[in-house]
Predict the 3D structure of the following.
Amino acid sequence: MNTQSNSTHSDWLRIAEVVHDNYKKMDKYSVDKTKLLIVLEVFNDLYHARINQQEDFSYISNLRQPRSLEGRKEDVIGSVSGGVERTRRLINCPDPISGRQASIVARNLVAILSREQFSSDIAVLLAPHFEVLKDLAGGQM
């Protein structure tokens, strides 16, 4: 994919797969947290642009979990919005983030692009993040 303007859904999925694979290759090495935050924001933007607006708990396992052990389903499992916020706080902590941790976050990007339909043109939605995703797909982690 050379430019974001002529990208297709499958182009974005391929980029997400390469980003995910590149993070997995980094395994125990530290990654650029600013770029990882972009990956998280891209997922969050896509999640809120889905045609199906029902809460989808399948994405939560790849996000930071709540600490509650009892209560309502949302208190124990959490919500995607809550998981995104907890993951954002984790990434913003001073401790380094490994490629292994980053690959878990990037897994949601692959999952959402693999199985969802969106109410907005994803090329337009993701255009502001094109350069960062391109860098990550090129191995600049």
